[in-house]
Amino acid sequence: MKITFIRLNMFEHISSDAMKPVLFAVIKGLTPAEHEIYFLDERVERLPEQIDSDIIAFSVETYTAKRAYILAKKYKTKNNVIVMGGFHAGVMSDEMLRYADTVLVGDAEDTWGDFLADCVKGAPAHKYISEEKHPLTAVPDVPGIYRHNYYGIGVYQLSRGCKFNCEFCSIKTMYRCVRRKPRDVIYEELKAAREKIIFFADDNLFYDKNSALELFQKIAPLKKKWACQISLDAAGDDEILKAMKKAGCFLVLIGFESLNAGSLAEMNKRANICADYTEIIRRIYRHRLLVYGTFVLGCDGDNVDVFDATFQFAVKNKIAVTNFNPLIPMPGTGVYKRMEKEGRLLYKKWWLSDRYRYGETAFIPKNMSPEQLRDGCLKMRTDFYSARCILKRLFSNPINFIPLNFFVFIMANIISHREILKKQGQLLGGILNEADVD
Q1: What whole-number distance in Å separates Cα of residue 332 and Cα of residue 216?
Q2: Which of 40, 235, 243, 369 could form a disulfide with 216 if both were Cys (CB 3.0 to 4.6 A apart)?
Q3: How many Å separate Cα 208 from the centre of its chain?
């Protein structure tokens, strides 16, 4: 069989912030050699007008769901099979089946092989559901499946799932537990990696202190340079930070989310509530690591003062890169269920609406209007990535002038500035023309 596997973009334009999709290598390793498989990444290349394949597969996130459905209509023929998987399948599999012949729910390791075997027999099922029982193994570095350089940065995943359960986060809709690769498997996988700079795509690289220290000690001899996402319980530990730096870490992504303890409690962000953000950031800088901070605005405890306070905090603490995001009720999360129950959703399904635009919110905040939330976040983003603010943050922190840190700081800020201008106000995916989503 001939298979085309597509990584979708939110919009019909080429992105400059696309990371290497590790799923391509996973799927390639799971596909029997007798099948002919091609990989397309819409974020970095234009999709063809027609695709002549027996199977067309889409990896779907909530933000790309409408795009998947539009393309499914475009590429569907009487002779092919449209299959969809990804995070959105975990909560919206029945919605997907309106546009796809088959939906894969959960890990591809548990579903992709069975799906292909049934396709060979001519009888694929409508739905395959992973039970998360397949052990995580090394992902082979397969030449030829990536036609884009992705800035020479490798993307690897050491674990799946997160030990926390934040109300706004969709991770738990995909993974019920945390599963991790054995350290020896991780070592061999990274040893075989061609890239010298790595991003770990784990939702939280830190599970517990002992296993983290053992991991960092194991990979240190590889001399890779890497970035990762960690929680504040790790970020405040000097022993952990020292071991990370020694093992090659240069940047940590941290979900600060809010400066408001009430909003953190509302999010169920337990690890953050009593944390001293400023002291933790200083500690990270002492180990010469950059900080990528994420913030969520628009919780019930937030009013219009939250924008300036959060912006000033990020600038004062010289954070290298940020995301200032309006709270978005993702399907399947506690936030979505609560907003739906309270009648505060602006759309039945914002991800399918032909009115919703990127950068807007999809609910009615308690202490501001939806427009104030949209405009407040946009102003924070544009001000933070203005030339003046970039230079102010660059020159105020000596660790930015470590050669790799300098390169990462400059490139990340330039790309973030560019992507804000591209994405803000854009219609997700295109026009779907569904009457029941608004």
Answers
A1: 34
A2: 243
A3: 22
Q: Which two tokens stand for residue 161?
A: 């799932």
Q: Report the C-alpha gap between 65 and 350 in whole angstroms.
A: 11
Is there a contact between 20 and 146 (Cβ–Cβ < 8 Å)?
yes
Beta-carbon contacts of residue 192 (< 8 Å; ≥ 6 apart): 138, 140, 141
Summarised one tens digit per residue, pLDDT across range 141-160 is: 787 899 999 999 999 999 88
CA–CA gap between residue 263 and residue 273 (Å, rounded): 9
Closest-CA residue to 185 (of 129, 148, 137): 137
> In DSSP terms, which residues pair with 291 in a beta bridge?
252
Residue written as tokens 């102003």? 379
Q: At 1, is the secondary structure helix, strand, or coil?
A: coil
**pLDDT of 54-107, one tens digit each?**
999 999 999 999 999 999 999 999 999 999 999 999 999 999 999 999 999 999
pLDDT, residue 156, reads: 94
* Strand, helix or coil for residue 397: coil
**CA atoms within 13 Å, Cβ hemisphere of 84:** 30
Question: Per-residue pLDDT tens for 124-134?
Answer: 999 999 988 77
Please write the tens of the pLDDT for every residue from 399-434: 999 999 999 999 999 999 999 999 999 999 999 987
Backbone region of residue 238 per phi and psi (left: phi > 0; alpha: psi in -120 to 50; beta: other values): alpha
pLDDT at 203: 87
Ramachandran assignment for 162, one of left (phi > 0), alpha (psi -120 to 50 degrees), beta (any other): beta
Q: Which residues pair with 26 in a beta bridge?
A: none
Adjacent-strand bridge partners of 324: 295
CA distances from 128 to 36, 125, 204, 425 (A): 22, 7, 27, 36
Helices (H), 325-369: 334-341
Task: Please report the pLDDT score of residue 436 as a whole number.
Answer: 61
Q: What is the mean pLDDT of residues 254-269?
A: 93
Structure tokens of 285? 């800088």
* 423 contacts: CB under 8 Å, gap ≥ 6: 10, 11, 358, 359
Which amino acid does the sequence have at 343? G
56 three-state secondary structure: strand
Residues 342 and 270 sit within 8 Å (Cβ to Cβ): no
The pairing of strands 159-160 and 179-180 is: antiparallel
- Residues near 74 by beta carbon (within 8 Å), at least 6 away in sequence: none
Helix (H/G/I), strand (E/B), else coil: 253: strand
Separation CA 288–CA 51 (nearest Å) = 48
DSSP-assigned beta bridge partners for residue 199:
155, 227
Q: Which residues fall within 8 angstroms of residue 68, CB to CB, at 6 or more apart?
A: 8, 58, 60, 84, 88, 96, 99, 429
Residue 140: is its pLDDT beyond 90? no
